[in-house]
Design a protein that fits this description.
With 177 residues, the chain is of the alpha+beta class. 44% of the residues lie in helices and 17% in strands. It has four helices and six strands.
Length: 177
Amino acid sequence: MQDLTRTVRVVLANRVWTWLRRTRIQRRRPFVHDVKRALALRPRGGVFRDALQLQSVSTCMAVTWTARPVHPWDRRLPGSEQEHGFATQCLKDVDAAITRMFARFEIVESIDVDVLHPISRATILTGRVSRADFLSTARMSVPMRLKMAGLAYEFGRGGLQPIPRRLESSTFLTTSA
């Protein structure tokens, strides 16, 4: 009886997984179709197959946020313990945020991440994370997962150290706090 129950569970799980994979692909199709329609210019007279051919499409999100400060209960700890706790919590927060963004925005293929220190506002973590790289590192520890996924950060004396921010000439939507 238990073998039959396990077999039924496995079959149902496989069907659900196949359905989820299929719906994720179908959600991206309208986006690609819209891009192709935007590239479909009116043909010029006398020119056969005169159209712009789509080679690739990328969807990238850029997000910058400020890390959470040290928990009020931990403010009486020695400075080194506070910084270690802050760094650990910051990396866990980044991992959770990226996981949730990829789950929420299925069309996004990569995310540009910048995390700012809560006091100095210096960049303490930066990089571009692709969905495929992030999902392939699911079984690693959080610090190694973030490094392997493409994020740069430095541990040093006093926890996470400021690092140079990536310079890009893109226009981003910003919100004022």
